[in-house]
Amino acid sequence: MQFIDLKSQQQLIRADLDRRIAAILDHGQYILGPEIGEMESQLAEFVGVRHCISVASGTDALLLALMALDIGPGDEVITTPFSFISTAEVIGLLGATPVFVDIDERTFNIRADLIEAAISDKTRALMPVSLFGQCADMAAINAIGERHGLPVIEDAAQSFGAEQSGRRSCGLSRLGCTSFFPAKPLGCYGDGGACFTDDDDLAGRLRELRNHGQDRRYHHPRIGINGRMDTLQAAVILAKMALFPDEVHKRSTLGARYSELLGDTDCITPHIADGNLSVYAQYTLRVRDRDKVAAQLGEAGIPTAVYYPITLDQQPALATCSRTSGDLATTHRLAAEVISLPMHPYLQDADMAGISDAVTRALD
């Protein structure tokens, strides 16, 4: 059994994928070719914003968003300690300080009600993460940002396609950033990512920053990076977009089905907040004796994963360049309890029943 099944999806799009890749091989514009603009237009329309700026990775998307806001040494960015290293890494790379706030034990996302206590005169942005496929409480976080004059960046690396109150992830704040890493809900066949915004000035800055800060050939008004997305990766995303709306629906349905099957077991299934539609980038349970559960599922041929056993505040690389607001008791407790099960749009009913039965046995 595969943790994430990309082969079934590829079989459905192979002919279109081959056609698009062949067209790129024919025209030879491997960097910023016409497929990049076509993809950006489709993604912006899907999210419901004016601008999509494709970049080389989800990490670059976050980095460039911070750079576009002129965040640097001496600044602070409030975020969650329960995420992949990229979330805080990019803050530290710019010489700024990640400030960690505890998470909600039901959604795994940052607690909006704790954010204001973390704000200082050095705070320059709020960067919630929409973890495991569900948006953070963006309405509450945006309201805090507005009260304090702070931009909000949604780290939506795991939530592209998710919805909150009828609006899509990446279009819920001033800036949204996502990843197209192959295992994401919408993934390419390498690294890729994108920034989304309705702000024309920020969009212009992002386009320059991703291309060495260049506004025209060999003229560089700002320091940027080589953060462009390959044209070949755009071809993959374009081919997948034909399936993606249906895959979003399937992910939401399958996640709910998992929770139904596991509802009477001795574990805590994911809680989806009112108004949210999750794309279940990971289907994540909370269990006692995680090592035992993982071992027994492994013996049954069922792969599992743990996101994230070492929280960001505990990472050696961030020890001297981060700050914690309040205690992180919930973060640390959940980091010891979470385990993720196989999740993708092509899971079959029989697979889910077998996985659920194996989890039930492992929990006895």
CATH H-tier superfamily of the largest domain: Type I PLP-dependent aspartate aminotransferase-like (Major domain)
Query: What percentage of residues falls in helices of 4 or more residues?
Result: 25-40%
Percent of residues in beta strands: 5-15%
Distance between the termini: 23 Å
Structural class based on helices, strands and sheet pairing? alpha/beta
Q: What's the CATH topology label of the largest domain?
A: Aspartate Aminotransferase, domain 2
Query: How many helices?
Result: 12
Low-confidence stretches: none
CATH structural class of the largest domain: Alpha Beta
Please provide a written account of the structure.
- With 364 residues, the chain is an alpha/beta fold.
- The chain is built from twelve helices and 13 strands.
- Strand 6 (163-164) and strand 7 form a beta hairpin.
- Helix 1 crosses helix 8 (231-241).
Helices and strands in order, then pairings?
Layout: H1 7-27, H2 34-47, E1 51-55, H3 58-68, E2 76-79, H4 86-93, E3 97-100, H5 115-118, E4 123-127, H6 138-148, E5 153-155, E6 163-164, E7 167-168, E8 175-179, E9 193-197, H7 200-209, H8 231-241, H9 244-261, E10 276-277, E11 283-286, H10 290-299, E12 323-324, H11 329-335, E13 338-341, H12 349-363
Parallel strand pairs: 2-3, 2-4, 3-12, 5-8
Antiparallel strand pairs: 1-9, 6-7, 6-10, 8-9, 11-13
Helix pairs in contact: 1-8, 2-8, 3-4, 3-7, 10-12
